Amino acid sequence: MSAPPTGGAARVAARVYLDRDTAIIKRPLAGLPLTLVVPIHVFQGVAVEITPGALPGTLTARLFLRHADPALCVPLREADNAEDLADDWAMWGESLKLPLLMCEPDGTISTVSAAPGSSFAPDRRRVYALTARRPRFLNRRKTGRLHPVQTVHRGEREIIARH
Predict the structure, then answer these.
(1) Is pTM, for the whole model, over 0.70?
(2) What's the topology of domain 15-113?
(3) Residue ranges of domains in the chain
């Protein structure tokens, strides 16, 4: 796979591994292997870019994960027409929970649809570590009790049993 799908940056051979949470990008940098682990939520969205093709009257459409740093953009698919990418574009956006973006020829980026699932409430924050309450599994246990102070009998003789 090639690194930056947009801009005039040089193309560098890279291998990309994607899952729902992270993108692992392996590519050489100054002759040394470089591995970058980028969380998916850092990407701006799933973008499509339509550019003129090699032949006059043809178009080339590219689908990629857009990042603020063009070197970290991850290409997903390339096709000769945008209709071939429409289903994949929506599928990638839905599966990665990222917004769908359109890269215009003048370089502007417009949002076509918001990230799926962004209307839902975020996961509840677990604040029990920050509160003074005991954890749930310890609530069933009894707390330690202080024993009453031993009584001392003053003025009495001590009886010690000896063998």
Answers:
(1) no
(2) PH-domain like (2.30.29)
(3) 15-113
